[in-house]
Specification:
The structure is a homodimer.
Chain A lengths: L10 H9 L4 H10 L2 E2 H7 L5 H13 L3 E5 L7 E5 L1 H4 L2 H12 L13 H11 L11 E7 L2 E8 L2 E6 L7 E5 L3 H6 L4 H7 L2 E5 L3 H8 L10
Helix pairs in contact in A: 2-7, 6-7
Chain A binds a DNA duplex through helix 3 and helix 4.
DNA sequence: CGGGATCCCCCGAGATACTG
DNA sequence: CAGTATCTCGGGGGATCCCG
C-alpha cells in the first residue's frame, strides 16, 4: 500500500490519510475562511516550507477538496478555494478546534494568532449555544496582528476576517484574555487589569463574553 | 519550536500537533472502543511498526489522553485506556469518520475491516438520527474477520465489539454491503444478490438499514 | 507469549535559493 | 506573485531481537 495509506476500509482511516499530513489541517482552516492566494496562505502559515505548501495544495486538489482558480480580469491572480466536499469538513474541524481550545492556556513562547485562527476561534466559540435574542451587535476583535469581526443579529452570529464597520465594540485582547473568555476573569476586572482594551461601551463586553465563551476543561492544569 | 509544533495559538493547531502524528487517530479510535492491551492494538493496526506504537502510547500518555494501567489479579496484563480528556475526542473523531465514510465506496485492494473500525462505523452511523421507538433489537454484524453488535432499545443504540447473544438478526456483509447501507441497494435485493447474508428474520434487515444508514455524497464518484 | 527495544534504510519535512 | 529546485536531516517503515 502507498506510504500514506493505512490499509483499512474505514472512514476515519480515509480522513486520516488526507488530514493527517503535516500542515494540511491548518491549510484547510485558512481556506475555510474564504478563497486565498498562495502568498496569503504562506503568510498565514509561518514556518511552512514553500515546496510543502505547493505539494499540499496539489494533493488537496487531487483529492477533490480544493480547486485552483485563475481569476480573470484586472486581478490576474490565482486563488485556492474549497470545493463543496472541502466545505463539508467544517463540522469536523470545528469539533477538533473545540477540543483543542479547551486546553489552551496562555500562549507558548513565540506563538502567534493569525487572522484565520481568530476567525475560526470566534466561529467555534459562538456555537456553544444559540445566541440570545436582542439588538444587533457588531464586534471587532484584535489579538496581536489578527483582526476579525462578528455580527450578532437575531439568533445568528456571522464571523469574518477584518474589522466590522462600524463596530459597537472593539475588543483588543492581551495577556489574560483567555481567562476572560473562559469565564474565570470578570469582564469589569479584565478591563481594569488591562487584560483587554475596549473601545466603545464597556458594558457590551459582558455580552461579548456571554456569546463567545470558551470554557477551560475542568481538571486540566 | 519543536518539530511537531506549528507555532500558532489556536485550538486546531494544538489538536493537529497531537492527532496529526501518523497512526495516532487510529490508536485513539481503537481505544475509544475500550481499554486494550499492547498486543490488541498491534493486532488491530496491521502495518504499524512496533516501536512506533510504543512511542505513540508514551506520547499520548504524556499528553494526558491515555493511561497505562497494570491490571492486578490473575490477569497481570497491561492495558491502555483513555482518560476523560481522551474520551472527549469522541465527537471530533466521529465527525471525521462521518466525513470520511461519505466517500467510501468499495474497498481498495487489500483493505481490511477491523473490529474497532466496525464498532466505530456502527456508532457513527447510528447518530444520523434518533432511533425509532419500537421493540428492542439485538443485531450482530460481521464483515470479514470483524464482529460487532448493536442493541437498539427505546430511542438509544448501544454498540460494542463481539456478537450479541442472542441476536435477533445476524448480518454478514460482503461486496455490495456498502451500497445497501447507502440506501442504493434495496434490502430484499441485497439478500437475493448475496450482498449480505442474514441469519434471522430477513424483514429486520430493512429496520437495520433504516437505523445505520450511511449515505454517499451526492456528487462524488 | 506479551510487551516492548534496537537497528538500518529511506521517504518526507525543513530550510533556503532561485526562477518563470 | 507563484511557485520550483536542491540539499539536509529527522522521523517513519520494516525486520529482528530481547527480556520477564
Amino acid at each position: 500500500m502507498p506510504t500514506r495509506a493505512y490499509g483499512q476500509y474505514c472512514g476515519l482511516s480515509r480522513a486520516a490519510e488526507i488530514l493527517g499530513q503535516r500542515w494540511t489541517l491548518l491549510i484547510l482552516r485558512d481556506l475555510l475562511v474564504g478563497p486565498r492566494r498562495y502568498s496569503d496562505l504562506a503568510a498565514g502559515l509561518p514556518g511552512i516550507p514553500s515546496n510543502l505548501l505547493a505539494t499540499r495544495l496539489k494533493e488537496l486538489e487531487q483529492d477533490g477538496l480544493v480547486v485552483r482558480q485563475a481569476r480573470a480580469g484586472a486581478d490576474r491572480s490565482v486563488v485556492y478555494a474549497l470545493t463543496p466536499r472541502g466545505e463539508e469538513l467544517q463540522p469536523a474541524l470545528d469539533a477538533l478546534s473545540r477540543w483543542g481550545a479547551a486546553e489552551l492556556r496562555e500562549p507558548r513562547e513565540g506563538e502567534i494568532v493569525t487572522e484565520a485562527s481568530l476567525v475560526s476561534a470566534l466561529r467555534v466559540a459562538s456555537q456553544h449555544r444559540t445566541p440570545p435574542r436582542g439588538r444587533r451587535r457588531a464586534f471587532t476583535v484584535r489579538v496581536g496582528q489578527a483582526v476579525a469581526h462578528a455580527i450578532v443579529a437575531d439568533r445568528a452570529v456571522v464571523v469574518g476576517p477584518g474589522p466590522a464597520q462600524p463596530s459597537d465594540l472593539i475588543v483588543e485582547g492581551g495577556p489574560g484574555f483567555r481567562d476572560l473568555l473562559a469565564g474565570v476573569l470578570d469582564p469589569a476586572d479584565a478591563v481594569a487589569s488591562g487584560a483587554v482594551e475596549v473601545t466603545g461601551d464597556p458594558a457590551l463586553l459582558a455580552e461579548f463574553v456571554e456569546i463567545f465563551r470558551v470554557p477551560y476543561r475542568a481538571d486540566a492544569g
